Amino acid sequence: MIARLSTATHPSHASERASLLTRRIYDVAAPFYTISARLFHWHAHTAALAAASVADGSRVLELATGSGEMFIRLLEVNRRGQTVGVDLSPKMAAHTQDLARRKFPRASSHCYAADARDLPFAEGAFDSVICCYLFELLPPEHVEDTLLELRRVLAPGGRLTITLVSETKQAFNTAYKLGGRILPCFWGRQVDERLVRMLPHCGFELTKDSYVTQIFYVSHVVSAARTTPRRFASNGMPHAHASRFI
Ligand SMILES: C[S@@+](CC[C@H](N)C(=O)[O-])C[C@H]1O[C@@H](n2cnc3c(N)ncnc32)[C@H](O)[C@@H]1O
Fold first, then answer.
1. Are 27 and 87 in contact (CB under 8 A)?
2. How far is C-alpha 192 from the chain's CA centre?
3. Which residue is closest in CA terms to ligand 1's atom 5?
4. Is the pTM of this model over 0.85?
5. CA 88 to centroid of ligand 1, rounded, Å
6. Which of 10, 56, 75, 193 has the most crowded CB, counting CB atoms within 10 A?
7. For ligand 1, atom 4, which residue shows the shortest CA distance?
8. What CATH code would you report for 21-245?
């Protein structure tokens, strides 16, 4: 399964510095991040799991596993399949890996430290890709290429399920923006509306979505099928200025 053929762009110094900081912050947060995930993400994870409708025996990839709450739930439904996780933070990845070994010692699973922008997996390696609260943390110029990278590792007919920080509630947006100014590499920025607009140009068709509120935290759970990206012409060459659609 592991072979490299990547569409990712080469990161600039500024965005690399930001990603390094994100990695360090999440390394520090790893031992207690489960509190935040359970308080704010749990119900959205439930909706994402339902939207992904993973069949037992599938090849599943979870990106940005964090401390592994969703990963464990994926292992529960995919006991006979292969479940792979990645997180930029080596401590988060190790935490998830330990949790998985403890809870499902016989499962075929592994969690790596890797960057979602440049995945160490072959084309079409997965039937299902799941990703909760990653895109907020990516440098804005890498959102589109990361979506293309997810499409690359999805098999034809595969499904992408993304959970995003919703932009539907004004008061929540104001609070989130404030958090993003104080700790940008931990909170990131809301990209929900922009990302949903990008899906067709990156080879995805939105099939289902729902909004989930837990305490005051609003999440948007988006499910999309892999199709042909509109940003590519029929000869396979990228259209110039595809991003003008975004
Ligand atoms: C907000 S947490 C979400 C964790 C988990 N998905 C959840 O739902 O609770 C974001 C996670 O994304 C990871 N992350 C940030 N940038 C990443 C990247 N470029 N590639 C992979 N993981 C990344 C962080 O290390 C962190 O664990």
1. no
2. 12
3. 66
4. yes
5. 7
6. 75
7. 66
8. 3.40.50.150
